[in-house]
Amino acid sequence: MMRTVFAALLVAAAAPALGQTSITTLPPPAVADPKVAALRDFVLDNDHYAWDIVEGLTTEVGQRLAATDAEARARDWAVRRLTAMGFRNVHVEPFTMTAWIRGPESSEIVSPFPQKLVVTALGNSASTGPAGVTGQIVYFDSVDALRVAPDSAVRGKIVFIDHQMTPTQDGSGYGQFGAPRRQGPTFASLKGALAVVVRSIGTDHHRNPHAGVQYFTDGAKPIPAGALTVPDSEQLVRILKRGRPVTMHLTLVSHTLDNAQSGNVVAEVPGRDPNAPILLVGGHLDSWDLATGAIDDGAGIAITTAAAKHIMDAGQPERTVRVVWFGAEEPGGFGGAAYAKAHAADRYAIAGESDFGADRVWRFSTKLKDTDPATYRELAASLAPLSILQNDSGTADGTDIEATIAAGAPWISLNQDGIRYFDVHHTPDDTLDKIDPVQLRQNVAAWTTMLAVLSGGIEPGAKQQSRR
Amino acid sequence: MMRTVFAALLVAAAAPALGQTSITTLPPPAVADPKVAALRDFVLDNDHYAWDIVEGLTTEVGQRLAATDAEARARDWAVRRLTAMGFRNVHVEPFTMTAWIRGPESSEIVSPFPQKLVVTALGNSASTGPAGVTGQIVYFDSVDALRVAPDSAVRGKIVFIDHQMTPTQDGSGYGQFGAPRRQGPTFASLKGALAVVVRSIGTDHHRNPHAGVQYFTDGAKPIPAGALTVPDSEQLVRILKRGRPVTMHLTLVSHTLDNAQSGNVVAEVPGRDPNAPILLVGGHLDSWDLATGAIDDGAGIAITTAAAKHIMDAGQPERTVRVVWFGAEEPGGFGGAAYAKAHAADRYAIAGESDFGADRVWRFSTKLKDTDPATYRELAASLAPLSILQNDSGTADGTDIEATIAAGAPWISLNQDGIRYFDVHHTPDDTLDKIDPVQLRQNVAAWTTMLAVLSGGIEPGAKQQSRR
């Protein structure tokens, strides 16, 4: 375990030589509760709840764009499924918001080499209208290059922002390489651009664009903003390198709907002590509209719900386990904000979200390391057999629980392997076949283990009746 | 080398034990000509012609659908490039045909679970018109299952044909698993189907459909015929397994143009003996319209042209090397048929086509094995250092040279590794990034070696002047 090794190394630095450290200087031992270990191992081999949920939701509902009829059908599906699984207090907590709805979209190079390029609009893009717009491409290799460009280089043109995102296991490239999508449209607009297209924030080489949200800030007027696929962006770079003026025709039709309805779906495994701080887990129910949202975030709600169901199957925990399928995460965390506001009086023992695909959990970190070291060591010992490392420098993670954590809830992050994540993220390719059932089960085992350790104890006598 | 091993084993069967065979029973030795070996090794390390061609064609022309303006631009590009490279007798041999042109297309499940599926029309599909058609899906797991179904099960419905194509190194799955695309629409039409969709003939899991040609035969009336992507086909299967009637709305708009112009582009490295049988190599210039046709078949024309250029750079061969960039292969080998008809009087020393991607050549076979065993052994010895095996059971390969071979030309097949080929074949993903430059150079080295061995000798003194 990483923390133990670090501790040993610190001691070793003061000792004559590595290997001669006294084992009596190591921290107190931690071992997993045998009942927790047995539950973990059972789930690792046998879970089917998670697959059933993500298979069912993606097949029977499909895409679930925030604040649309599709997301409403998903909430209905969620209530039926969670009720059938035996959860209690299953209900929807509605809220309203402005929905952004995609229409027809296309792009083509008009000259010098006429050809179509595959594009998708970014969230909150202005609409070009069905006739589209035509303009000369101006190239920038980063947002910063655009930022320092004179307005005269940009005005009336279609800005293209390139970059070279690389896969990382911890997903750390999303901050830096996501900047073209998040900040590019605003900078382009403030400099008078006609429109903006960015290279998709993705690590694949398929003709599937990566959607995603952006906001026009700092008084920037909305302009049409889209993402080209990675192969199309590389094609555009090759065309630009010929040195001739490049003209693009861009059509990105969209509209907005005010006072559209979204909502969070809440379900619980009631604890023996209704006054004990609760365990909050979940993911987001909405998806982008280009695919069925299997890894983003069908998998996350499936994993956390399956884990809660395994606690239910084992008996009754001391603490209530609350599962939330948050609405409208993709356009900006509307569900998480609405939840935190509605539940400002609730007290939490932990808050955790699964929203980084369906590949294996490879490390974890939690606030409890500082506030409850004994429980932290027990968690670490219980998770280690799933090949899960301790991450001493980890931070809270998850748009949906951000507001709840900001209000004081202790957090836990079970970090998934993100090497493949941005191959598929927000593309038409986010479909069920991208989920590896074996890795999905490892996730469920990890979350079940975490809930069991923090449950305050599960009493078999009070086992819930499962209807599914 | 495979053939030698086989011969040894045959002898071994009559000998007391393996390992005691006399080495005096092996066939006569063959060694590569040192000049050919040096050329081969130079090309393997240094070729850039092939990359330059496929990069240029895919960037500056893009998709090249048969008998369209795009294919005409590609012919213009070809004449300019081949002339600039120093080829002689560069010209276009035009022919006319009926072009099939894709329009807007989409599909969606209307009930029980409304959602869009990604589809593309197959070649020669009837048009649904912009309003589309709506019908109930009837499922078949193979063409044969459709073939034996009663008309009453199919009439007025949208036929869906499933299958499970598997990747193979030699591409042998394309025959069996291609049947749903090639024969399915005709069977569906003859039984009175409203329309037909097939699972894409592909081995990937991306939301990119695989286009491809089919013909309505046996008096079948054209009906709308499309291919769903592999993930969408699997989604449709999951939806059907719920056991409720499934209704699809299908829009496949297309039109045809009679007397549309296509053409073959011909270029030569003139031989010292104009009367000697010539070496014919090439690939096809047209592509499907969904992508830039990098592996199908930009790579093939790039590889064979680069090889001919290396012969030109080395001097003047005894035999003329003729390179043909065939037109309109995808809709059914129109260019190859036109070429064979126009050149019925020509005599060939060999005919070979590259049209199976850009991955490495792993084996070869040729008619010369029977007609000229000494040259065959020299070829085998010269290609073996490129890790190319002898394939004793190989056959002639290539739509474009089929008619020429049928008329008597000796053939050679340099088989490319096809494990990845049907991941990308005929999809929007057939773009330049799918080509591995190292494997591309191995292809050029193999074709250059073949041409050098069969050239009748290259005289350095008569070296052509290269302008590029």
Summarize the structure in words:
- The structure is a homodimer of 468-residue chains.
- With 468 residues, the first copy, chain A, is α/β, with parallel strands linked by helices.
- In chain A, helix 3 (49-60) crosses helix 11 (294-314), helix 11 packs across helix 17 and helix 14 (373-383) runs antiparallel to helix 17 (437-454).
- The first copy, chain A, has helices spanning 2-14, 34-46, 49-60, 69-84, 143-147, 151-154, 173-177, 179-182, 184-190, 230-241, 294-314, 334-342, 368-371, 373-383, 402-406, 421-424, 437-454, and strands spanning 88-111, 115-117, 119-121, 133-140, 158-161, 195-199, 225-228, 247-269, 278-284, 316-317, 321-326, 348-353, 361-366, 389-390, 412-416, 458-459.
- The A-B interface holds A 55, 58-63, 70, 113-116, 118, 205-208, 230-231, 234-235, 238-239, 242, 291-292, 427-429, 431-434 and B 55, 58-63, 70, 113-116, 118, 205-208, 230-231, 234-235, 238-239, 242, 291-292, 427-429, 431-434.
